[in-house]
């Protein structure tokens, strides 16, 4: 196998040659992902008929006999064609002499996007014809033999990045869309980053990768869980929203350090930019505190961060939930820019302006402001008008100022101010969340702010028995550029405390969780963990507009697979073994009459 | 962090210190899994309160102040206790002096399997009291402080490997069963082996780890697929039996080399040693032939093979399907021992023995035999009788001789002959399977021997149009010690051929696969792949009696989770959003009246 050019690049240390703001070039970005002084470049041509990938050929290969396999990207006047594989593009000269007529015919007749195999010699391009924008731009292939491996029929759209397609069309022909540079880059970056996370967790820190079931029991109040009918009449499995119970049980089982790249399921009906199945980096540790988990995750992201991005700086800043709400009007602040919310009540303490006087006279009444730097310079009258309307539309929502801040940032950016640098990744821990929230439907009752296994803040345990509403938790969220990309907590390991919270404070039916409560009785170690939303994280890292761009075969926002027409009808006889019948909405009406 | 003892062991090259036939000792086997000159030992005590694991302490730690966390394994006369964590056992001296009364009380009062944290000094055991059978047997801990982290209530069974429990009890209290040495070893070996497979595929050979959906469309004839009702009346997702379609579509999408540790689902009702969800190492490559896939897999198993087993020797031998049937009477021969089936027709060509004459006079009639070496010495009269009965019971089943061979091997082993060395791993490729088989319910029609995407053998393509029954395929199975642990094939990449096989030969409704057929039209590269059954493989590697022993939370053979009582009933109002109703068997009867 030949890969001297890869290796030489590796040792020349050409990491991060291209910033995301630069026009992407086939092969360059993906190769840069792999470049690091600690990593060996994989053998991409082992076990197969090709000797090299299209994208790896350089001047150092001159004179070598190579066999390449790829797709015809483009052909010019029957003189040359550009061959593409996952690694890049290479120019192939179509032979014009009579003796090579059959080779010429194969290469000239094959439609664009046909798959061909060519063998020939790597030669220099004629002087002046080098293409410095193309990584393989110094060389071309003088073909000796060619074989058409598969012809391509007329395509529904051109496989060129500059050809814009609707997302529905892209999803319908996902196997063609995957040939685009951006999708190749996104999926390979995802694979690389997850691999490095595994190395960090498994090889450096002794975590055990353990698979947990996805056919499980319905959790109390699990209204968003998909059901799976079993062959026992009326009995169902449920697809869990996370391996929460299992990972805690693994700690009780003494596994000490667990992780899993876990498939999770949530049936939220139609929600934009959500997926019915999604993936989380799921982690749990014994004998750990909040600081331990935070350091672990900081190291994890630093270790796995792609080479073509600026390195991650650790430790990440920390902010309390209360501070985040007061300063940014949200529990997931975008800390790439300022424009914080400032309490200016004191300025107006003696004001005669009526509506401010009104506000300040109320208990806890405050006047708050956001200062937009050079706002007067950038914002136009209609911008101010739209801000005023936005405020009016969201009046009385406590998150108004947070939303207003983001709205103002959007406006400033449309006016050309760069507030949120796309190459900047601003991580933030948000901590000290409340343990409980008043139930929406009955504010006198409590519900868990996150989930009922979250441990109370050590300073607030006494409040559980006096003013539980005031108790803070040991929950922590990880925020990146204003997006929640992870959350976790130290868990309750004391069975009595867990029972008190479930039964007395939350008034849950503890029977459905009896196995977990019992497990806590049998020597459960103190433990805690976290889950990172992998799809969202990769989406932010790649700067993709939607998580659908970092998933090979995503569902549409209605939960459909547009390529295969999923979900689909099932003949009634195939429902019989599961003892279910379809009750169409009209059937309900009929039976109600 | 202290791990000099790990490192020194690593560089002293203590790999494979213990054979599986030896009595397992806590810590030793797991540590040996990690020992290899190429691998760094993980930091097991990073981010947590302990300074060391219980199992890692040696004479080299003498004098060090350590903090340990673990479970009380055992206590003797209030003088010492043995503390356990995942890494092993260590002896802790309970202080007897008045000033340490509170420490003594904690350590003496805590029930066995309680979780404690102790800090103290590593000291030598008094001369003569060393325990050479215990990896930490030269030292003990002189405790200064102790904390009870969680007390343990009375256990349903003792956490000791020699205490035999029923499997139902083990599954009901799985979180306790996981504390056993064997389960810790099995799950950690699994994690390690999968990690090494990922390194081989991803880092050495450029495979891309791609997640494919598990909520998908029902495949034609997919009678064993679980259904998942959607919120659209009468529309269902299906949990696929494998990512077969997706991996082929990824090749059409130019991903070149795909792998996934893929969760798969199969609803087979109650089947011993099967699981409704299981895991396969799923692989697909472009531009590859059968030899390429075989070399890849041989390298994969060699690279990922545990250090405490004998190394894997490659290449694996290959046998045709026809030869396997003729010589071993099965398509998954156990090649650890001989006793092959021999055709002795010629010996009896002129026989006067009636039943042999009868057999030989029929078309293709043969007389075959198995020679049991020293059978007369080992087998008793009642053994011969049981073989005769077995033969009579299975008469006229073509696999009779293959089963008889295994039956004889079982008998010989009960008589003390070691035929199948438990430390021997005998891999075998079985190739040249038939492409089609006659349908069971209608032998004049054909069905795929494996699946309809399998490419025909290059020499047999012409037979598809004349005698399809005789066509061999490019399918290959990987067999280990008589168990099929993997299977794959070169796929059809030509749309016309795929249509001909699906529509004309198999008479399938091609509409359900129209997306795949269309994909083949748009420049699908030649491709092939394989899937290894991970649960079965790890079961064989660890020598476990059941695949349930290598899965953290397995289902019982009836598909139940005995810990949480799954599957379970669901209130009717939670079925409404999915437009389904339960139709109990009695309901059917009533409506039939």
Automatic annotation (TrEMBL), chains A, B:
UniProt keyword list: Aminoacyl-tRNA synthetase, ATP-binding, Ligase, Nucleotide-binding, Protein biosynthesis
UniProt keyword Iron-sulfur present: no
Record GO terms (molecular function): aspartate-tRNA ligase activity; ATP binding; nucleic acid binding
GO biological process: aspartyl-tRNA aminoacylation
Entry's Gene Ontology cellular component terms: mitochondrion
Classification via CDD domains: AspRS_core, EcAspRS_like_N
Pfam families, per the entry: tRNA-synt_2 (PF00152), tRNA_anti-codon (PF01336)
Nucleotide-binding as UniProt keyword: yes
Stretches assigned to the Aminoacyl-transfer RNA synthetases class-II family profile domain: 187-567
Family: Belongs to the class-II aminoacyl-tRNA synthetase family. Type 1 subfamily.
NCBIfam families hit by this protein: aspS_bact
Protein name listed in UniProt: Aspartyl-tRNA synthetase 2, mitochondrial
Species per Swiss-Prot/TrEMBL record: Pongo abelii (Sumatran orangutan)
Record lineage: Eukaryota, Metazoa, Chordata, Craniata, Vertebrata
């Amino acid at each position: 196998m030949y890969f001297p050019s890869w290796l030489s690049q590796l040792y020349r240390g050409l990491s991060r040659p291209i910033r995301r703001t630069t026009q992407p070039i086939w092969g360059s970005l993906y190769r840069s992902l792999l470049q690091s002084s600690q990593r060996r470049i994989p053998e991409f041509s082992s076990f197969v008929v090709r000797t090299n990938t299209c994208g790896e050929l350089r001047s150092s290969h001159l004179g070598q006999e190579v066999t390449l396999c790829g797709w015809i990207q483009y052909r010019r006047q029957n003189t040359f064609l550009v061959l593409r594989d996952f690694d890049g593009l290479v120019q192939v000269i179509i032979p014009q002499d009579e003796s090579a007529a059959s080779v010429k015919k194969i290469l000239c007749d094959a439609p664009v996007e046909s798959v061909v195999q060519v063998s020939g010699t790597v030669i220099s391009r004629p002087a002046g014809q080098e293409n410095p924008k193309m990584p393989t731009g110094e060389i071309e292939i003088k073909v000796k033999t060619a074989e058409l491996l598969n012809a391509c029929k007329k395509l529904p759209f051109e496989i060129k990045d500059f050809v814009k397609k609707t997302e529905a069309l892209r999803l319908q022909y996902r196997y063609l869309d995957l040939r685009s540079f951006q999708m190749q880059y996104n999926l390979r970056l995802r694979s690389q980053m997850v691999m490095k996370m595994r190395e960090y967790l498994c090889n450096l820190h002794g975590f055990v990768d353990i698979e947990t079931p996805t056919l499980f029991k319905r959790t109390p109040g699990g209204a968003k869980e998909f059901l799976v009918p079993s062959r026992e009449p009326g009995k169902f499995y449920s697809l869990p929203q996370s391996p929460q119970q299992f990972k805690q049980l693994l700690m009780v089982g003494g596994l000490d350090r667990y992780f899993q790249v876990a498939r999770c399921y949530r049936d939220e009906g139609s929600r934009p930019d959500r997926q019915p199945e999604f993936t989380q980096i799921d982690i749990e540790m014994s004998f750990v505190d909040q600081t331990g988990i935070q350091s672990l995750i900081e190291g994890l992201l630093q270790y796995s961060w792609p080479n073509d991005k600026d390195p991650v700086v650790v430790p990440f800043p920390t902010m309390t939930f209360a501070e985040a709400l007061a300063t940014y009007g949200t529990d997931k602040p975008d800390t790439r820019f300022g424009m914080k919310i400032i309490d200016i009540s004191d300025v107006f303490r003696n004001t005669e302006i009526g509506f401010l006087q009104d506000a300040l006279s109320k208990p806890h009444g405050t006047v708050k402001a956001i200062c937009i730097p050079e706002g007067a310079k950038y914002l136009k009258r209609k911008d101010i008008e739209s801000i005023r309307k936005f405020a009016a539309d969201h009046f009385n929502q406590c998150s108004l100022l947070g939303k207003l801040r983001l709205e103002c940032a959007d406006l400033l950016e449309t006016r050309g101010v760069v507030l949120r640098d796309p190459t900047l990744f601003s991580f933030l821990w948000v901590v000290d969340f409340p343990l409980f929230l008043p139930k929406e439907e009955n504010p006198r009752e409590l519900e868990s702010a996150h989930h009922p296994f979250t441990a109370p803040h050590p300073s607030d345990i006494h409040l559980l028995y006096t003013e539980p509403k005031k108790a803070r938790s040991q929950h922590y969220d990880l925020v990146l550029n204003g997006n929640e990309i992870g959350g976790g907590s130290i868990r309750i390991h004391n069975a009595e405390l867990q029972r008190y919270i479930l039964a007395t404070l939350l008034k849950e039916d503890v029977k459905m969780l009896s196995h977990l409560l019992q497990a806590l009785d049998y020597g459960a170690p103190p433990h805690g963990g976290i889950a990172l939303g992998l799809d969202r994280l990769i989406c932010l890292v790649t700067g993709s507009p939607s998580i659908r761009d970092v998933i090979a075969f995503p569902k549409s926002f209605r939960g459909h697979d547009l390529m295969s027409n999923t979900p689909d009808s099932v003949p009634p006889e195939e429902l019989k073994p599961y003892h279910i019948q379809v009750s169409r909405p009209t059937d309900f009406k009929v039976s109600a009459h």
